[in-house]
Design a protein that fits this description.
Layout (H helix, E strand, L loop, with lengths): L1 E6 L4 H10 L1 E3 L1 E2 L11 E4 L9 H13 L1 E6 L5 H7 L6 E6 L7 E3 L1 E3 L3 E4 L6 H9 L1 E3 L7 E6 L3 E3 L6 E4 L5 H14 L2 E8 L2 E6 L1
Parallel strand pairs: 4-9, 8-10, 13-14
Antiparallel strand pairs: 1-6, 2-12, 3-5, 5-11, 6-13, 7-11, 14-15
Helix pairs in contact: 2-4
């Protein structure tokens, strides 16, 4: 599946790392911009006398082992360009993610907290991944795909397929990216805003 990583022009080095090293950086989820990231509430039967504290502690330990790379299913979003690509002076890196990789998750949007039922609890690892592959529904516009990884880098099986530059990117950076994309055989396009949404066209 195609996925899109937005970067501001000030973080061009991060985009170049994806291009040259065929990898995605996975960050500590506690550094992400949603203050409610990873928060969860748990429930259990009122008739249960079982102490669930050790299970909760295990979930918290597992969460600490997981790192996240956030991408989007689309580049056609004014908000994504504004929030993550410096208001169209940055760029989007198009990558190909495998359709069958248990580390690649479609984000599920929910209420303020992820909900964990101790009646359905299986193991801490799966529960931690379920929590971190969900997000507060006000972020739904991001159409997010997440890579949940146990290490800092996630290796891509295929090379970068396309770079989409914002229409406000500085001419010097555009020329530099033209040289790089020509050498790496990457399609380079430029965003434009139309009545039908955000489009891109070759440059």
């Amino acid at each position: 599946m195609k996925a899109y990583k937005f970067r501001p022009s000030s973080q061009l080095a991060f985009a170049l790392d994806i291009i040259f090293n065929k990898r995605l950086h996975c960050a500590d989820w506690q550094t992400l911009n949603d203050p409610m990231e990873g928060m969860f509430a748990y429930s259990y039967s009122s008739s249960s006398e079982k102490d669930h504290s050790h299970q909760v502690e295990a979930i918290i330990r597992e969460k600490k082992q997981i790192k996240i790379c956030s991408l989007s299913k689309t580049f056609d979003s004014h908000l994504l360009w504004s929030h993550y690509a410096s208001g169209f002076d940055g760029l989007v890196v198009e990558v190909e993610l495998p359709d069958r990789d248990e580390r690649v998750k479609d984000v599920i949007y929910r209420g303020i907290f992820a909900q964990v039922s101790m009646e359905e609890y299986q193991n801490a690892s799966d529960t931690a991944e379920t929590i971190l592959s969900s997000k507060y529904n006000e972020w739904e516009y991001e159409k997010e795909i997440r890579v949940l990884n146990r290490s800092e880098w996630y290796s891509l099986r295929k090379s970068v397929t396309k770079i989409i530059i914002g229409h406000r990117m500085s001419p010097a950076l555009v020329e530099a990216l033209k040289i790089i994309c020509d050498k790496k055989n990457i399609c380079l396009t430029k965003s434009t805003i139309t009545d039908d949404g955000i489009m891109d066209f070759p440059i």
